[in-house]
Amino acid sequence: MAEVTLTINGRQVTVPQGSTVLEAAKKLDIFIPTLCYDPELTIDGSCRMCVVEIKGARALMISCATAATGGMVVETESPAVVEARKTILELLLANHPMDCLTCARSGDCRLQDYAYRYGVKEGGFKGAVHQYQIEDDNPFIVRDMNKCILCGKCVRACAQIQGKSVVDYSYRGFNTKVAPAMDTTLAGSDCVFCGNCVAVCPVGALQEKGLRAKARTWEVEKVRTTCPYCGTGCNFDLNVKDGKVVGVTSCDGDVNGRALCVKGRFGYGFIHHPDRLKKPLIKKDGRFVEASWEQAINLVAEKLGAIKSGFGPEALAVLSSARCTNEENYLFSKFTRAVLGTNNIDHCARL
Amino acid sequence: MTNPIKDVAGADFILAIGTNTTESHPIIGLQVKKAVRGGSTLVVADPRKTEVAELAHTHLQIKSGSDIALLNGLAGVIISEGLYNKEFVKERTEDFEVFRAAVEKYTPEYVEELTGIPADKLREVARGYAGAENATILYTMGITQHICGTHNVFAVANLAMLCGHIGKPYSGVNPLRGQNNVQGACDMGALPAVLTGYQGVGLDDVRAKFASAWGLESLPAKPGLTVGEMLEGASRGQIKGMYIMGENPVLSDPDAGHVIHALEKLDFLVVQDIFLSETAQLADVVLPAASFAEKDGTFSNTERRVQRVRKAIEPVGEARPDWRIICDVATAMGYPMSYESPAEIMREIASLTPSYAGISYPRLEQGGIQWPCPTADHPGTPVLHVGKFSRGLGKFSPVEYVPPAELPDQQYPLVLSTGRRHFHYHTGTMTMRTGALEVHYGTEYLEINASDAAKMGLAEGDRVRVSSRRGSVELSARITDVVPEGLVFTSFHFPEVAINKLTNPARDGISKIPELKVCAVKVEKTA
Ligand code: SF4
Ligand code: SF4
Ligand code: SF4
């Protein structure tokens, strides 16, 4: 493939032809702030956060949509660039509720990050602000359109990742709003609550209901794991606070990228459900009574052993589990064959 | 799956049989949608007008249980019109002539009688599949949960070999597994006739290898019982004790009444689970297990990708990871078993299993690995059967259409089919306790066609009793054209709608899969 070499902030970089300036900068680990850009979605180029100065160009250019060309000389933090970014941020903040103190996305918000980076304290242009009702009439997602910066990522994620097009821009001008058709709520639309829009939203406009009610962004530890539901094997991060799983967020999964379905993203509540079994139980006179591990294990060993010696290994049978890990299935097979002495092991794979 | 999930989006032609992909495997469904957006042709064969069927260019609304007729019919057209991949058939397969002779009688007109699919539509789909550069076949339980389930799978493989749509990217024969680690449970030998990596218990050298690794003189050679046979054995008193880990056969297996009866007859039942499931309630001892968030390990997904499960929190209460409990029971029975960690168990698995030999925890930190992975520097195998089948030549295995074991009659005039819902999972033990999923989708209903509803004077939301020869459940009716006349549908997720009281335990002769997709029922209004 043909390549081009360009200079960014005084450093040379060679990238495949057709790469954007943003991609070339990434290769040099030069950070360019973006709001509406996402590598998995089509380029929108509307937020203009990623502008850069290109030698010989008459105006600042948006790096996400400008092709890198041979010999190009780019500055990503020149005074003109910084000035432009400040103006954009002031415009956005002018119409943004300044409630970072209580916003659950605080600490994981691009608007906050960039305002800090460029020292923008407040919106420069006081004017009308939105007074939208916060939408939380479903158990999964909270939508606060007062915080929406109209980057359009959720619109594209819903269409291009989820293939649904549940949300889109509605109304015009100042009243432009991202909403399902007829401006109903997600609950009233054919939304499948995959939350893939939440995963791409750069600000607090879309939030996971359970997670954000329980933990601030910096309080959680993220542990990457594999979904316990269907056989697709999506990866995600369990969010842990004080020894409890408080939510699930996307990581870059081998199979799924950042996409998840409603079960993977919002189906973790069973982990701490009060119905979880917490102690071994032994049935006495038809009723379960709690027992110690030692009592339970010894009883199991004794009963299985007695059947084995009384009726032979073929009187025992084992059902293993398509829910358990490989290691556990292996050990259970070893147990059945080596300890019980039978091949009577199966699982419910057929179902 | 012979091919990776990501290949689906690159296929020019997708034939999805008996899989409601967007609901049951939503993320694989995204790949299907992506392919369609990119201009691929999607053909869906399903008695129901599912979400993915709505997306299809062609929906083959076949009669329940007529999949073999459809698949043989497609092959018949492809052969008679000379559209098959002659080079592939010659170089890579055997028994083609037998196959050709077997499918000859499945003319489009005959297939129309059996499946209800117009002959011209069949021809069009056959030409599309054969003519595509890369065509993939996706299927799930819709194919396997029949008395002829194994034959259905053969029929799928025959079609793929006929057109050479296997052993290359963006094609293949792709079963989509319903549970997270069905693939792994099979790979690990949680099956009556094989040890890890499908090494047969009947082979002397295999048994010798495992016996010596496990420090024993010998291992049992006689293949064991399948789950259905175990339950039959229990009800006849031959099986006296069972140890069930993380399964809920009372709700998931057909003819629930029979399952309960069988488990109650046991002298001793121990169940290890995270909840007191319907099955655990019947146990003599219940052992509390850790959930996936509370332990380390690996799952193998439907594309054979081995991936890490990581411990995020301590087990709740006194619960323990299943692997530790098994070690404790084994030790108490006089066979000391102890491992530092699941990583150590994986080292033992790798040492005994050629297809997992190159897999280790340090490698999995870099990402999942698709088996076969025979050595530590092998990258894994995304596409199976490239250049050569595992048995050498691909064998055509001709199969014949047989009607479902139980057909509707005067007394039970409707066909009941069961399946999954987007917001729920399996027998609901997890998804009914999330504080979210069950809030959003909290009650189950029976899908019934408007013309059947009219005959019974049913209105939307009416309570109905659905009964088969084996049992009955009550639920609300939803009148919809998702199901055709003569078919009703519901899921098996909801304990209060224990639909497997009704289903037919008639099993496939080879795989022993029960025919959960077809049984005869009647529907009556209750109030
Ligand atoms: S949750 Fe999923 S379906 Fe619903 S709006 Fe967001 S992306 Fe679209
Ligand atoms: S809701 Fe979030 S992702 Fe959607 S347009 Fe607004 S800011 Fe962007
Ligand atoms: S997130 Fe959804 S599609 Fe992915 S593995 Fe989990 S249940 Fe399956």
Q: Please give the radius of gyration of chain A in angstroms.
A: 27 Å
Number of helices of chain B: 20
Regions with little confidence, pLDDT below 50 for 5+ residues of chain B: 144-149
CATH level-4 homologous superfamily of the largest domain in chain B:
Dimethylsulfoxide Reductase, domain 2
Tell me the helix content of chain B. 25-40%
Main sheet makeup of chain A? 5 strands, mixed
Helix content of chain A: 25-40%
- Bound heterogens, unique: iron/sulfur cluster
Q: Which ranges of chain A are low-confidence, i.e. pLDDT below 50, for 5 or more consecutive residues? A: none
**Rg for CA atoms of chain B:** 24 Å
- What share of residues are in beta strands of chain A? 15-25%
Number of helices of chain A: 9
Specify the CATH class of the domain at 3-77 in chain A.
Answer: Alpha Beta
Average pLDDT score of chain A: 91
Question: Rough shape of chain A?
Answer: elongated
Distance between the termini of chain B: 47 Å
Number of strands of chain A: 16
DSSP strand count of chain B: 21
Describe the structure in your own words.
The complex is a heterodimer of chains A (351) and B (527). Chain A is of the alpha+beta class and 351 residues long. Chain A is built from nine helices and 16 strands. Chain A has helices spanning 21-27, 79-94, 110-118, 153-161, 196-200, 209-214, 262-266, 293-311, 326-340; strands at 3-8, 11-16, 51-54, 61-62, 73-75, 141-143, 167-170, 177-180, 206-208, 221-226, 235-241, 244-249, 281-284, 287-290, 316-319, 345-346. In chain A, strands 2-1-5-3-4 form a five-stranded mixed β-sheet, sandwiched between helices. Chain B is an alpha/beta fold. Chain B folds into three domains: 5-176, Dimethylsulfoxide Reductase, domain 2; 182-224 and 289-370, 3-Layer(aba) Sandwich (Rossmann fold); 414-525, Barwin-like endoglucanases (Beta Barrel). In chain B, the strands form six sheets. In chain B, strands 14-18-15-17-16-21 form a six-stranded mixed beta barrel. In chain B, strands 3-2-1-5-6 form a five-stranded parallel β-sheet, sandwiched between helices. In chain B, helix 3 links the parallel strand 2 (41-45) and strand 3 (58-60). In chain B, helix 4 (67-80) runs antiparallel to helix 7 (108-115), helix 4 runs parallel beside helix 10 and helix 7 (108-115) crosses helix 8. The longest helix of chain B has 14 residues, at 67-80. The two termini of chain B are 47 Å apart. At the A-B interface, strand 10, strand 11, helix 7, strand 13 and helix 8 of A face helix 2, helix 11, helix 13, strand 7 and strand 8 of B. Strand 13 (281-284) of chain A pairs antiparallel with strand 9 of chain B. Bound molecules: iron/sulfur cluster (3 copies).
